[in-house]
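Why does residue order matter? Because the sequence determines the fold. Keep that principle in mind as you read this record.
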Amino acid sequence: MVARRRRFALLLAALLSVACACSASAQREDSTSLTGAARMSLDGGAILQPGTSHRASIGGEYMRFVSEHWQLGLAPSVGASTSMVSIYGRSSLAGIANYVTGTGNLRWYAGGYASAAENAQQGQFGVVGAQVGALYLLSPLAAFRGELTWRTPTRAGSVASWQFIAFLDPYLPATGSERVSLPSDAAVESRATCMGTPAVP
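Structure:
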């Protein structure tokens, strides 16, 4: 009788251990869920050429995980260039869609890019492209991202560009009842860029 009770206690302890392990595994999977996480970036630049012309631009990007596998976003930008006698404005608005795969801290993605742009000197034109990359979740506050992009303007005579960029992205919390996957109150994005042949502005 005592031996039977002992075997029952050991069996119960084993079942509880398995249940705890499954629960811990599920919690780890939930902690790396991307649904609802979003990143925002803002960057600008200027090229000053005394005596000839100057160029300046500012742009932003908002990307949100609408599900575990889809990341959608917008990227507006505005800028201006000056010559000795005139100032020319330019603007663009891009849509970006990435399909994300993988589990845990490492995710892979591939997606498309399309934008409409207007330049006071050259009129309206579009830009299309694609990108592939990897996303590594460093912590609940940030993720490292390496991305290879290809872009080509649709107007005649333009050339395509290739660009590899490394990012350290901050993330904003999910809203409402969604899980907060990668919360962050940071608002700075660090980047390193290696560019190929530039597209005609």
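The longest helix spans residues 2-31.
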